[in-house]
Amino acid sequence: MSRPRLSIGTFGDLTTRATPSGRFEARALYRDWDGRARQVSANGDTAKAAERALKEKLAGRNLFQPASSHLTPDSPFPDLVAYWLQDIDLENRISKTTRILYERNMRTLVLPVFASLTLREIGVARCDQFIKMLAQQSYNRAKQARVVLRLALELAVRHEVLPRNPMDHVSRLHREARMPDALTTREVNAIRAVIAHWESGVDHVSGPKPDGQLGAIVEIMLGTSARIGEALAIRRCDVDVTGSTPTIRIAGTIISRNGEATFRQDHPKTAKSRRIVALPSFTAEAVRRRLAVTRDHDPDALLFQSREGTPLSTTNVRRQMRQVLERGGIAGITPHMFRRTVATAINDNASVELAAELLGHTDTKITIQHYIQRRELVNPATAELLDRAFARDEE
């Protein structure tokens, strides 16, 4: 009769024998994680000591064994979270900023609810209820929690700890459709006027005088569709205003993290967002003025800097813009609104494909859903077309 086959990660036929040296050797057949059975041995002063040493050796054996083998369906959820974060670090495929965001969202949104549960206790119903309850508080929080919970449980499935990912069957999040907010030409010029008045220093009382950077930042965002971080990351070498067609190369962004100095990242939000943008005259003129007053002529010098020569943080620029505009009676303006304004203008006067290209999008669906303000007025040409089709016959 054939001997039953060992399951992977188990041993059988443990035997103990005395060796010529007077010690004892324990041996067992162990089926490794590559499916092959191998003889494993260990020595001890007594037979029981040899057996204990062998069992300890087998327990720690990890030849071809998945790194997550210590996880089981009965492991607490925090153990999976710890391993998931380690796995992210080993893969090293996402940015440090995203890694920090994932850990923050997991610890602040998910762990408070799931920390006392084992992996087998985390099912579809529990996950579905969690996401729905969180969505009642905030759509964005629910979306962020959904991402990290799915990724962690997906790792458990890949390592055969769980048979399926319960997040695959959680109902979709629904958000009330919201019209992207874009500025009119009149509103843009009002913003320009308020910033210009502030930068003139007429009402300046104390503290550092305005240095003219805020107005130039706005003109660059209006002329390139750049995100605020991308605009602040522009270097002298990224600018060409001497040719017949002035251009700016969008090739980086500004990053600020807790506990770290603000720095320039060598690529935009996504690597595919790198682009060279032809400048309208108002942006080219703002760039020329900025180049004329900057003292650092190093090609890698940032176009916009603090008085200490360090990168400007997006948070500080947003705060300054808000304070300046509110002082001038304009509220509710954010840097990202200029990006939507540009997208809407290009779509209205050309096409959504051109708008998506300018914004650095690879999919026009993103441009349409989040950046283009839909006009209620239908093209009046429809009236003429319908007149041709259905005009009354003359009697």
UniProtKB/TrEMBL annotation:
<keyword id="KW-0238">DNA-binding</keyword>
<dbReference type="InterPro" id="IPR002104">
    <property type="entry name" value="Integrase_catalytic"/>
</dbReference>
<dbReference type="InterPro" id="IPR011010">
    <property type="entry name" value="DNA_brk_join_enz"/>
</dbReference>
<dbReference type="InterPro" id="IPR010998">
    <property type="entry name" value="Integrase_recombinase_N"/>
</dbReference>
<protein>
    <submittedName>
        <fullName>Integrase</fullName>
    </submittedName>
</protein>
<comment type="similarity">
    <text>Belongs to the 'phage' integrase family.</text>
</comment>
<dbReference type="GO" id="GO:0006310">
    <property type="term" value="P:DNA recombination"/>
</dbReference>
<dbReference type="GO" id="GO:0015074">
    <property type="term" value="P:DNA integration"/>
</dbReference>
<dbReference type="InterPro" id="IPR004107">
    <property type="entry name" value="Integrase_SAM-like_N"/>
</dbReference>
<keyword id="KW-0229">DNA integration</keyword>
<dbReference type="InterPro" id="IPR050090">
    <property type="entry name" value="Tyrosine_recombinase_XerCD"/>
</dbReference>
<dbReference type="GO" id="GO:0003677">
    <property type="term" value="F:DNA binding"/>
</dbReference>
<dbReference type="InterPro" id="IPR013762">
    <property type="entry name" value="Integrase-like_cat_sf"/>
</dbReference>
<keyword id="KW-0233">DNA recombination</keyword>
<feature type="domain" description="Tyr recombinase">
    <location>
        <begin position="178"/>
        <end position="387"/>
    </location>
</feature>
<dbReference type="Pfam" id="PF14659">
    <property type="entry name" value="Phage_int_SAM_3"/>
</dbReference>
<dbReference type="Pfam" id="PF00589">
    <property type="entry name" value="Phage_integrase"/>
</dbReference>
